[in-house]
Amino acid sequence: MPLLALVTAPDPNLALVLKVLPALVVILITSAICGRLALMVMQPRVLGEMVAGVLLPAARCCRRSG
Fold first, then answer.
1. Is 37 exposed, middle or buried (0-12, 13-18, 19+ CB in 10 A)?
2. Do residues 38 and 45 lie in contact, with contact meaning Cβ atoms separated by under 8 Å?
3. What is the spatial distance between Cα 17 and Cα 63, in angstroms, rounded to a whole number?
4. Buried b / exposed e across 41-53, counting CB within 10 Å, b at 16+?
5. What is the pTM assigned to this prediction?
6. 20-65: per-residue pLDDT in tens?
7. C-alpha distances in Å from residue 27, one per residue of 9, 10, 18, 40
8. In the prediction, which pLDDT does 13 show?
9. How far, in Å, are 27, 30, 48, 55 from residue 41 at the CA level?
């Protein structure tokens, strides 16, 4: 039996999950941290979460160009 017959093609669903799952974890952690920081300065938690939403795309943009 040839060796190539034993090698399976990579699962595209697994590749997608491995790309999306770390991004979701980063988003959730960042929004939780910014939400707690907002509470510490007497602002609503949702304000901190919105700030996280603004910061994350900006960080991604800077990472690509830098």
1. middle
2. yes
3. 22
4. eeeeeeebbebbe
5. 0.69
6. 888 889 899 999 999 999 999 999 999 999 999 898 887 766 665 5
7. 31, 27, 15, 20
8. 84
9. 21, 17, 10, 18
